[in-house]
Amino acid sequence: RLQPLSRLQVILQHVKMSKHTDSTAEVLLEKRGGAGIITLNRPKALNAVNLSMVRQIYPQIKTWEQDPETFLIVIKGTGGKAFCAGGDIRAITDAGKFASSLAQDFFREEYTLNYAVGTCKKPYVALIDGITMGGGVGLSVHGHFRVATEKTVFAMPETAIGKFSLHLFFVLFVTGLFPDVGGGYFLPRLAGKIGYFLALTGFRLKGRDVQKAGIATHFVESAKLPALEEDLIALKSPSKESIADLLDSYHAKSKIDQEKEFVLDEHMEKINSLFSAGTMEEIVQRLKQDGSAFAIKQLETLRKMSPTSLKLALRQLREGASMSLRDVMAMEYRLSQACMRGHDFHEGVRAVLIDKDQAPRWKPAALEEVSEEFVDDCFKPLGNDDLQL
């Protein structure tokens, strides 16, 4: 028989566990000078954000906002590969199987955190070095300053859990089946129709292109980030203006890919024309009629996507273009819960993470089969269950 532990043994075990937890904490929160520093610390999981991390970061941002000795907030990731590759969807889909409230709690609290970033009273600087997707976008893009590097890889691949079969890490942490975490707010506000193109195709932007697209505010070489961080911390009572000046000076000195033109430059006219259609069916029709190599490539991509997700995402962006961030987050929470109730989210996770056959069977399988009534239903208010911000 197992002997019961003495009280002293229990205390010693607890102390040992606390030490272990502290040294391997999933998120590190520290004050250095006048700066609050948030470090996402799950390098093996590409710093994917989970509910526990959300519950640590949110109150800390709120505390620093009220602290007269905290002048700015910096967020970064560890490991050198990713800032944050998204939200931990495996846990969410498992929760769905067991009728857990995690799916509601995760999205509700993650979106509340995204809104806190977007309304933060202190200057907020995100160092988006490495993969920045899904939930990582929500932790950075709504803040005042976003610093990309040559290692940054940005995408909103949510419409295609199953698309990136050769790059499994791109889909491990996708948070939903539409470009959430405020995608409905920032994507339609990018130049022309580039936001619609990124949302619907999951196209990946890399390095300086993330800044040229208007997603990052600055580009700084990855090796210079530690020095930039020290200079940010050393600023005396910094204002948004003095932080912007410092970031501008680093940006001006960064030479990598300086002369390279924006990756989508030659296609922007087509993107603006083809992706300005009012319905997904019309976008597909325009791509077919265009017939160029670029258009055919986009058609092939869209054919792999969830038809339901494409229709939800297009409407989300069209409506979000004229909504406040608060209203967009409430709309996206409704969509997240519709996706949790639906078929395609769980099917996408099955195809990529569980059976790994990379062959999701979407239902419905064609755009024409996704009715307007169904789409309308996904956008309906949830009454007392709506997201309150």
Fold blueprint:
Blueprint: H1 7-23, E1 27-32, E2 35-40, H2 51-66, E3 72-77, E4 82-84, H3 89-97, H4 102-118, E5 124-128, E6 131-133, H5 135-138, E7 145-148, E8 153-155, H6 183-186, H7 194-201, E9 205-206, H8 208-212, E10 218-219, H9 225-234, H10 240-253, H11 268-274, H12 280-290, H13 293-304, H14 307-320, H15 325-341, H16 344-354, H17 372-378
Parallel strand pairs: 2-3, 3-5, 4-6, 5-7, 6-8, 7-10
Antiparallel strand pairs: 1-2, 8-9
Quick structural overview:
The chain has 389 residues and is an alpha/beta fold.
Structural class label: alpha/beta
User: Briefly, what CATH class?
Assistant: Alpha Beta
Looking at the structure, what is the overall shape? globular
CATH topology: 2-enoyl-CoA Hydratase, Chain A, domain 1
Which percent bin holds the helix content? 40-55%
**Main beta-sheet annotation:** 6 strands, mixed
Radius of gyration: 22 Å
- Order of the strands making up the biggest sheet: 1-2-3-5-7-10
Q: How far apart lie the N and C ends?
A: 53 Å
What integer is the average pLDDT?
Answer: 87
| The number of domains | 1
Write down the secondary-structure element order. HEEHEEHHEEHEEHHEHEHHHHHHHHH
Provide a descriptive summary of the structure in words.
The protein has 389 residues and is an alpha/beta fold. It has one domain: 2-enoyl-CoA Hydratase, Chain A, domain 1. Helix content is 47%, strand content 10%. The protein has 17 helices and 10 strands. It has helices at 7-23, 51-66, 89-97, 102-118, 135-138, 183-186, 194-201, 208-212, 225-234, 240-253, 268-274, 280-290, 293-304, 307-320, 325-341, 344-354, 372-378, and strands at 27-32, 35-40, 72-77, 82-84, 124-128, 131-133, 145-148, 153-155, 205-206, 218-219. The strands form 2 sheets. Strands 1-2-3-5-7-10 form a 6-stranded mixed β-sheet, with helices on both faces. A 4-stranded mixed β-sheet has the order 4-6-8-9. Helix 7 (194-201) packs antiparallel against helix 14. The protein is globular. Residues 1-21 and 160-176 have low confidence and may be disordered.
